[in-house]
Amino acid sequence: MKIAQFSFCVITILVSECSCQEITYKNVTFFDNHMIITTTHQGRSLQEFLPDDPVESLTILGTIPVLYKDAIINVSNVRELHLYNNKIEQIHPEAFKNLVGVELLEMKYSDFITIKKGIFNDLAIRKLIVAYNHQLETVEEGAFDNPHIETLELTVSVIKTLPKNIFQKMAKLKTLDLTGNLLSSIPPEFLKLGLESVYFSYNRLTSIPGGVFTGHQTLQEVNLADNNVSLIDSSAFDHMLQLKSVNLAHNKLTTIDPEWFYNSSSVTRLNLHRNFFEDIPDEAFKNLHGEVEKIVLSECRVKNISCGAFKGIKMVRSLDLRMNEIEKWDAGFLTGLKEIRSLMLSANKIKCPDGDFNDVFKAEYTYVGLNPLDVDCLEKIEDWMKLESSKGHVVCTEESCFD
Ligand SMILES: *[C@@H]1O[C@H](CO)[C@@H](O)[C@H](O)[C@H]1NC(C)=O
Ligand SMILES: *[C@@H]1O[C@H](CO)[C@@H](O)[C@H](O)[C@H]1NC(C)=O
Ligand SMILES: *[C@@H]1O[C@H](CO)[C@@H](O)[C@H](O)[C@H]1NC(C)=O
Ligand SMILES: *[C@@H]1O[C@H](CO)[C@@H](O)[C@H](O)[C@H]1NC(C)=O
Ligand SMILES: *[C@@H]1O[C@H](CO)[C@@H](O)[C@H](O)[C@H]1NC(C)=O
């Protein structure tokens, strides 16, 4: 009796210790969209908890210190898989395997420090989001040798550097989002051909040398906002035939280089909001000679505008110069600019624009609210608006036209 009890005890301890090592799921809840599927006491592999019916969006909530081998394998009826707030510290190299039909895999709010080589390599997913993992600082070489992923978001972590050629084997990668890390440079080899959009906002970039983006043949969108960029090489964005949108807002640029965007004539959106340009030089945007949707120069402390500043632009839908320190606005500034829909000059220091109002207000809409316009000037504008020649042009002098 005693011996039997004793051996039963030993066996129980052995059994539980052995299985404990590999139990990934303990007190974890599974949701289909927002509906609870089940809360589990324990289990090793996700498919034990899945219903037979297809699941559109599966969320796994609860603490999972380790994703053991086989934790997420042989899943075939889930489209999106969200691992959310799991505080995962370790991921076994064989934790993910054979996910057929899973399009999106997302891991947010976990505690792992490293993405190890090979974890994601065999997954036929289209989108991988690894975000808000505030301890994540290291990505091993080979971590993303995946030929299927089209969108990779590796955001809001503490990555300072990435290994050379880390994205080279991602044959289908089109969108790369590294927003919110601590990167201080963009190694040129990141920008493999095929990429269409790259996001580097909220990093620690201070300069954009030539050669990083120059000549890239597929990039359409480059977001470098919210860094500390104070220097951009003249040739940084040259010969990029597909480039459409460049966001440089919230940086430390002090000069606009008229040589930027040489032979990149598809650029249609340029955001320079919140930089520190006192001057807008002659022909500042001469290389943007396609149909430009918008140029944003708001809150840039602009004071001095050169006479031919906007010469060379054929057509611009919106030129945004709001919230600067412009005192002098001259009809001449718009000469050489063929067509402009919306000119935003609100919140500057203009008392009255100089020159022929037919030229000053050549835009379809000109916004001059929140300027210290003097009474004479307001009268002059009103008189001009009554003229036949002002037809088709609206001038808004009110605060309510701020936007
Ligand atoms: C299970 O998890 C919930 C919420 O995550 C927690 O409130 C509860 O205390 C846990 N139960 C056990 C037995 O750990
Ligand atoms: C996963 O699927 C493979 C192939 O169908 C099978 O050999 C393996 O036993 C499965 N593993 C688990 C844990 O279900
Ligand atoms: C920019 O530089 C300043 C100091 O010059 C620093 O305090 C700030 O954190 C930096 N910002 C970024 C986004 O790196
Ligand atoms: C413009 O860029 C394309 C592609 O990089 C290149 O083939 C072409 O020679 C360039 N044209 C000029 C005028 O530099
Ligand atoms: C304004 O810019 C022009 C040309 O860039 C320069 O010649 C002029 O001195 C500047 N004026 C002021 C007041 O800074």
From TrEMBL:
Protein origin, superkingdom: Eukaryota
Matching PROSITE patterns: LRR
Signal peptide: 1-20
Keyword rRNA-binding: no
Keywords recorded for this protein, A-Z: Leucine-rich repeat, Repeat, Signal
One GO cellular component, as annotated: extracellular space
Protein's name according to its UniProt entry: Uncharacterized protein
Source organism: Zophobas morio
